[in-house]
Amino acid sequence: MDEAFRILDDGRVFFDYGPASMVVTARRGDEDFSDLAASAFPFLRDSLSEIAGALPILRQYPDGMDYSELTGLPRVMAESVLATGEPTLTPMAAVAGTVADAMADWLFARGADAVIAAEHENLEKYSARPYQQALTQ
After folding, report:
1. For 25-74, how does the pLDDT look when each residue is reduced to its tens digit (9 = 90+)?
2. Phi/psi class of residue 120: alpha, beta or left (left: φ > 0; alpha: ψ in -120 to 50)?
3. What are the φ/ψ torsions at residue 109 (nearest 5 degrees)?
4. What are phi and psi of 28, to 5 degrees?
5. Does the model's pTM come out above 0.85?
6. How far is 44 from 39, CA to CA, in rounded Å?
7. Spatial distance between the Cα atoms of 129 and 132, rounded to a whole number of angstroms
8. CA separation for the pair 107, 36 (Å, rounded)
9. CA 17, CA 112: separation in Å to the nearest integer?
């Protein structure tokens, strides 16, 4: 196994890097895009680095916090938590979902039309088709 990822026998790609343990499947129609999914490791590494740079802010509760200086993925994380209105959540609650969403966008931009990203106990299913239609098929 490479230190950061390996392609599993069924075509899924297992990433194990820093705090992230993620399994990703990428397809286009019936074609397995495991090589494309594996090539996403630098994107995952850079995403986690971007988040790590904002940890002092991301670990703070939203009450009275000013997240206006955040950009990129840290900003998305803060906006996600602020949208809940829950004062006991920090933006760190949105790490897995934000990284999975960004990974799916990255894979779609490179030709995948269906992506499944699972980090820890979270499972995110994405499709280039309308969301509701993708979940019912």
Report:
1. 999 999 999 999 999 999 999 999 999 999 999 999 988 788 888 999 99
2. left
3. -65, -15
4. -135, 110
5. no
6. 10
7. 8
8. 7
9. 23
